[in-house]
Amino acid sequence: MMRSLYSGVAGLKTHQTKMDVIGNNIANVNTTAFKSSSVTFADLMSQTTQSASGANATTGVGGVNARQIGLGVKSGAINVNISSQGSAQSTGNPFDIMITGSNFFVVSDGLANYFTRDGSFYVDGVGNLCMTSTGYNVMGWGVDPETLSIKQDTVQALRIMSADNLTYPPEATTKGTVTGILDKNDTDVNSEAGKTINLNLYDALGYEYTARFILKSTDNQGEYSVELTKLLDAKGNEIVIPDGTDLFGTTTSVDDKASVTFNANSFVWDTSGSTPQLYDKATPANLVADLSKLSSGTDEEKAAVYAAVAEAYGYEGSTEAFLNLLVEDPADATKTISVQTLLTNAATGATPSLLNPTNASPAPTTYDFDAAGRSFVGMKIKFDNDTGLFDSINGNNMGDTTVQLSKLIANTADNTSNFSDIALNWSGISMFNNNGTSTLTATYGDKDGIGTGRKLGDMIGVSIQRDGMIYASYDNGMTKLLGQIATASFPNSSGLEKHGDNLYQATMNSGSFDGIGVDVTASGGYMSTGVLEMSNVDLSAEFTEMITTQRGFQANSRIITVSDTLLEELTNLKR
Q1: Are the CB atoms for 506 and 496 separated by under 8 Å?
Q2: Closest CA to 177 of 378, 402, 439
Q3: Which residues are within 8 A (CB) of 523 and not within 5 positions of it... i.e. 6 or more apart?
Q4: Strand 479-485 to strand 195-202: parallel, antiparallel, or no bridges (unpaired)?
């Protein structure tokens, strides 16, 4: 039988194999991250009809080469073009990831690890990052709970949307900063009501509050008083501060001389009884304030009396500020007492009182008085009159620029509180001319944004960095590291074995996976989100290979045809 017949058969089979590879490449021209393959041929074997002989130096006869007849062709190797990077295809999906470089994603079916360049991922129902096609878990590294940094240990499934990650815990405010310009010609600063400054803050449960401060000028040039007047919740309701609790500063007196005039056009005092009473002048039967309530009434009744008296005296500031005005003690001109004490004296019948400052009889018809100063719970800040820069707090020139806003004790039984002490820094303010307008503002946190506090944060987004680190962002402005996508690198990546579904398995010739993986940036690679790697199949090259394969197949078929013709001639010899 003719050897050429079998050589032709071998050629047909080998070109058929190459055509199978080309067909597979073209079929996967749009497969995500597909790597094309190519076939190389090798001769099958040769039949030696005469071995080679060496030269004979004695006879002078030269050597003869071996005589060999080839017996066909075989597939030498099927190589995967795994090192060639496919083009990027934009998808807009933040969980679609493309690796630039030679590394592979690591995925697991729960039993074994596989490797892929297909970065089409999604988050499943329990929060795991998975392959879209197979549901296999994407593997990576978790976060060390102590250092809050990535711990590169044995790879694990990345559960990025666990219950712990969906929210960011709240935190109480611990620092605050006051900045801006305080213009000494500002009418608000020089009024009895003062300039209002609000500081927003959080407690440990994430509830937001507003601390309202009042800033007023004093009779001492460059000096201003600051007091905390209210603490409001997020709905504007005032938080009741327990009696005797000083949240801000200490009891302080300032020289702040002022004339306070009783509004005799609208109100009238009746001092004929044992305790004075305040009436509406237009409607004398309308009792505005009965001072006897100051000794026998409830807290609400006492507060109503104080508020009515402050209104009758036309005081612009708060009722508390009115009660803290200091006047000369009628019993001792070397001392001062508060308006609240004088009202109490009037209520209890003690003399002298605000209503009868000289203990004269009959009582005066008007009840104006001059305040020698005022008392408040807070602090005094001072500016350098030459430079306009902040100078000191309460006369302390030792560089202390903060005042503690003490935590509100919510539970007196065990002295616990959801609030934290807040160090409020005032060094950022100055006393410059700003056309009569002050621009003071108070913000939580220091100048570096530390100690701001925060509310409970809900996850609003997930982002994946170039190094595979996954961060969550929350609506309270915080971010959190959730994990890092690990990658695998092999000494001979073309030695990986295809497993189907765009997956590869490690083989003895590819190198093994150590179970830990590597950072994708360690070898100069990186990850891009919102894009996928396309197939690296080159259609023009594949079609060219298809033509040459077709011609090779045709030529080998002709070998069989001609060999058959020769055999036919051989069998016809017996005719």
Answers
A1: yes
A2: 402
A3: 101, 102, 103, 489
A4: unpaired
**Burial call 189-227: b when 16+ CB within 10 Å, e when fewer:** beebebbebebbbbbbebbbbbbbbbbbbbeeebbbbbb
CA–CA separation, 540 vs 321, rounded Å? 89
C-beta separation of 375 from 339 below 8 A: no
Contact (CB, 8 A) for 403 and 174: no
β-strand 88-90 against 531-533: which pairing, if any? antiparallel
Predicted TM-score of the model (pTM): 0.73
Sign of the alpha-carbon torsion through 364, 343, 253, 320: negative
Angle between helices 3-27 and 539-571 (to 10 degrees): 160
**44 strand-pairing partners:** none
Domain boundaries, the chain: 3-53+62-83+537-574, 88-168+458-533, 175-255+376-444, 259-371
> For residue 415, with 0-12 CB atoms within 10 Å meaning exposed, 13-18 middle and 19 or more buried, which class applies?
exposed
Query: H or E element: which one contains 19?
Result: helix 3-27
Structure tokens at 367: 């009840």
Q: Tell me the sheet residues that pair with 484.
A: 141, 469
Measured from the Cβ of residue 443, the count of other Cβ atoms closer than 10 Å reads 16
| Count of Cβ atoms closer than 10 Å to residue 92 Cβ | 8
Q: What tokens does 520 get?
A: 């994708």
pLDDT in tens, 268-295: 888 777 788 888 988 888 898 888 888 8
Task: Specify the pairing of strand 422-430 against strand 175-181.
Answer: parallel
Residue with tokens 């074995």: 497
440: tokens are: 């003071």
Place of tokens 């309308």: 286
Strands (E), 384-478: 390-393, 402-405, 422-430, 441-444, 457-464, 469-474
Can you tell me the distance from the alpha carbon of 385 to that of 223, in angstroms, rounded to the nearest whole number?
A: 9
CB within 8 A of 189, min separation 6: which ones?
A: 182, 183, 195, 215, 216, 217, 224, 438
Q: Which of 159, 162, 165 is nearest to 137 (CA)?
A: 159
For the beta carbon of residue 300, count every other beta carbon within 10 angstroms. Answer: 9
Beta carbons of 313 and 371 less than 8 angstroms apart: no
Residue pair 422/405 in contact by the 8 Å Cβ criterion: yes
182-224: pLDDT as tens digits: 999 999 998 888 999 999 999 989 999 999 999 999 888 899 9
In 3D, which of 340, 351, 388 has the Cα closest to residue 181?
388
